[in-house]
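question for whoever is on the cluster today: can someone run the full assembly for these? two chains, 639 residues total. i dont have access anymore since they changed the login thing
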Amino acid sequence: MAREKIYLEEVFPSPFMQLWGIFRKTPVAMVGFCCFIFLILLAIFAPIIAPYSPVDGNLQMILLPPAWHVDGNVSYLLGTDELGRDMLSRLMYGTSLTFGLSFIVVIFSLVIGVVIGSLSALTHGIKSSFLNHFLDVVLSIPSLLLAIIIVAILGPGISNTVWAIAIVFIPQFIHITRYAVKEEFRKDYVLASRLDGASNFRILYYSVFPNIVERLMSQATLAQSAAILDIATLGFLGLGAQIPLPEWGAILANGLERFYIAPWTVYLPGLAILFAVVATNLVGEGIRHALKLRKES
Amino acid sequence: MLTFTLRRISLFIFTMLVLTLLSFSLSFLFPGDTVINHSGQTNATAAELVELKASYQMDKNIVKQYGAYLGHILNGDFGQSMASQSPINNEIIELLPATIELSLVALLIAMLVGIPLGFIAAINHNKASDNAILSFAMIGYSIPVFWLGLLAILVFSITLGWLPSAGQISLLFEIEFVTGIQFIDILLSDSPYKWQAFSNASAHIILPACVIALAPATIFIRLSRAAMIEVLAASYIRAARAKGLTFQQIIFRHAIRNALIKIIRHVGLQFANLVTIAMVTEVIFSWPGIGRWLIESIFQRDYTAIQSGLLVLSCFIFIIHILTDFIYAALNPLARGNKHGA
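^ ran it for u. tokens below:
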């Protein structure tokens, strides 16, 4: 009988894989993670699987309640709105606007924030202190307020909202990267590779980044749940996505006038937002929980 | 304490400079003529325009322009609202107290509900009640505030008819404007229907304040839970237990005080968050505050109002921030900086 393993190799998983190992064993976090993946898939494939167009209405089928209602119609599973547009299709397309855009926005701000943050972590003196103060000021202004101001400058619209939110989230990534990189640079393993003659950038890329990536991810989930809420809130206030676009907040604002006779046009998009934010937060909680456990072990 | 105060004051001045610089540059970023954006005088004649340009020193270099703008702000001259052509500082004085009132009541509710719940969760750490409170906190933190406001109106105002859904007070009551904070004005007024007005105003504030309070309350739950768990693991608690104090004595005499100090530190940061939520809630509940006014100004492209509203709101947030820092330092000697013997 052939022995496949001749000697017992000791494998040390990378910090990231250790984290994943702990994360996988938390059922609640895995449920959140599955919902998160589901939303991403929905955001990508919404145009293929949605049964109807999100903007063309069927005027024979106005204000149809959801299918479980007595007057409901099973071909319009979640009912229709005042122009006969299918709510299910609108919510599906809305996933790619509200959830998908927030995901892209956060990735974008993350990349820019990490680059600026790690560069600034290597600076010292007055430049660094000025940046510190400046970041404190910017971070003390709530993200939504800042986004509203930027939208006021650029004018309402979904693309301007996306830019505004991307700009708003950059400072917090700069802050966390800067803090994390500075902390890592004080540790001995960085000193060791510096004694080997590694340049700052080499240390940053090969030694520091693998150790701070989870912290960045945890911040990214926080930022994303805020981004979903911000995009939806701006859409609700009429500053974000404009009329025919099926953005969740905008759908909700659209249903507002018929709140009493057609409550599903208001509570369904609200539930969709809630679902997306809870899924994101569960993933974030899972990462933070795993980080804590890994630190203790 | 003196170094601490000086540090805070320098931070305050720096922040105000950055904020005024931001609102100054907004006039250049907004569409339209800079001097009109500064002053809001859309219907000015040619002669008035020349005068305005002189007063804002528009022909000098940018530093002088900023100085002139700062001078206007320090004199309390925010210009005119482009939409209503009335001075903005009058509008702000009328509207800001309503926002202060609403957000302070909401902060109070959030702290009164959130902190005890967090303590309960921490004392029953890893038990069913802890998990229940944590799940509640997660949902409360994730719920979009505008949706929550609408649901609250649907349930409590329309279906049950318990509470009014809009405004600050019923229009039947005539309350003279003194401080702008409704409750104080009612108590100061000599109307025979004082107490009816008071109860009416309270009924109006409950719903919006609770809606605003939910998200900050959940954050207080998490903060106070974390603080309490940390305190309960400390060695002085173990010492108290070894002395034979009962569980109540340990919690009420030792743990709560030490945990509260840790929480107060975060109140300032949470307040900024709370004010943003209040802005959206004001729109839904037609609350006559500065948040609704600011969002309306965006629709009306009233750039002067937007830039002054931003300045005043962030100023207000920052003052609260500094105040909580001072309270924290007054309560906790460790925070005042110079650590003797450390």
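summary bc i know u wont read the tokens: Chain B has a mean pLDDT of 83. Residues 91-336 of chain B form a domain with the MetI-like fold fold (CATH 1.10.3720.10).
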